[in-house]
Amino acid sequence: MKLLRFILVLVVIAYAGWLAWPIVSPFLEGASPGAAAMRAGAEAAGGGLPTAVLWIAAAVLYLVAALMLGAGNPRAAIAYFLGFIADAALRLALDSGGSGSDIAARSAEAVGPATSGLGIDPAWLVLAILLVVGVLVVLASRRRRRVRTPGQLTI
Known about the structure:
Blueprint: H1 2-28, H2 33-40, H3 51-71, H4 76-97, H5 102-115, H6 122-141
């Protein structure tokens, strides 16, 4: 179970890095926050909440979930699913807005070979994969109670 938890921590950190890269990379080049959001395609969609807020929230919540999972905290699943909700809202907002953002293009490129013959929308496939990872996070973050006889030392 520790190996599964370790692999899940690496997977969640890698996904959070992949998700945050379009927002982080312009800052590494010295761009302003507005230019970074425009370059990432994270401008305000339909006058509502800027998608950059959802984008950053999802990446931060995924990182928090990975750190909590690595520490063995059973609340890691809560942080993961909050990040999942932000990520799903982000993907569906960008998909319905038709803004042609970077996240949609990168997702289509990442899962393109798997969806080429099936006719499945890449956004829904990525969300399904993230949901499966979330179920694995729940399984890996559960505490196992061991039955001890009275007087037995804990290890």
